[in-house]
Design a protein that fits this description.
Pfam families: Prim-Pol. By secondary structure, the protein is α+β, with helices and mostly antiparallel strands. The protein contains nine helices and nine strands. The protein starts with a helix and ends with a helix.
């Protein structure tokens, strides 16, 4: 007799074979929590959140960042327990080159039908998912009942849907554009000493570049609690890249420049960086 676990895993394998990164999902649409290797967020991820930090851990513990197309991982012993507990299959739209406009109620659906170009549509529990070809920043509550799920987010797999996928329109991209926060001119950037010189565990330089770009964006988009945001961002970068020696002075300078553009002083940047290194034992 075929078990629900087998059906979910087979669905995930089929999606992965078509280039869609997938992961198991708990009841209530929540991803799986931290694994032992990432206890207390040592890797900089944010467990049980839809928007999670990058993590090289092979286990399904960091939401969208755990999504994979590797059948070996999907069939692995590490993931077996997750599939037994999983209530559904989720996928990373951005990793598949897609954007999901998640419409949560009838009013949101009516707005979409009047405003957005038609595309592939999938019925959801409370509304519809409109799927477009293209990647953009994810954001919740861009308007009443409307969420955007693309990069750094996951969506529940609800079936192939109906209709033809069309190109991501500018009107959808514009939904996540926020009013810019005031910035101050950056002062001279003083870069502290780099990280430790261990063996690099990252497969390609793209992993580091993506992490630095994401960190810059997180600092730049902060409109409050700037100092705390800078510290948390520094801590996340160092926890992921601080021990392998691939974090260069140029990368640190980019982070300091972003922080100082938000009003942080050079001294505060240095203190935050030093405190983050101390916290991680670097």
């Amino acid at each position: 007799m075929t078990q629900p676990t087998d059906i979910r895993r087979d669905t995930a394998l089929q999606l992965a074979a078509s280039g869609v990164p997938v992961l198991p999902l708990r009841a209530g649409k929540g991803p799986f929590g931290n694994c032992r290797a990432c206890t207390r967020n040592a890797c900089g991820g944010r467990p049980n959140m839809k928007h999670a930090g990058s993590c090289a851990c092979p286990r399904p513990c960091h939401a969208w960042a755990a999504a994979t197309t590797d059948p070996t991982v999907l069939r692995s012993r590490e993931w077996a327990g997750a599939w037994r507990e999983a209530a559904a299959v989720a996928y990373h739209p951005g990793g598949a080159g897609l954007t999901v406009v998640d419409l949560d109620n009838a009013a949101a659906i009516a707005w979409a039908r009047e405003t957005l170009p038609r595309t592939r549509t999938v019925e959801s529990t409370r509304g519809e998912h409109w799927i477009y070809q293209g990647v953009m920043a994810s954001s919740n509550a861009v308007r009443p009942g409307v969420d955007i799920k693309s990069s750094m987010a996951y969506a529940r797999w609800l079936g192939p849907g109906t209709g033809t996928i069309t190109a991501l329109p500018d009107i959808v991209r514009a939904l996540t554009v926020k009013e810019p926060c005031p910035v101050r001119p950056a002062s001279h950037v003083t870069v502290p000493a780099g990280g430790a010189g261990g063996e690099c565990r990252h497969r390609t330089p793209t992993y580091l570049e993506r992490g630095i770009a994401m960190a810059e964006q997180q600092i730049t988009e902060a409109c409050s609690a700037i100092h705390a945001t800078v510290y948390r961002t520094f801590l996340a970068v160092l926890s992921t890249h601080g021990r392998c020696g691939c974090l260069a002075d140029a990368h640190i300078a980019r982070l300091f420049t972003a922080a100082q553009a938000k009003g942080e002083s050079a001294r505060h940047c240095t203190d935050a960086w030093t405190n983050a290194r101390t916290t991680l034992g670097l």
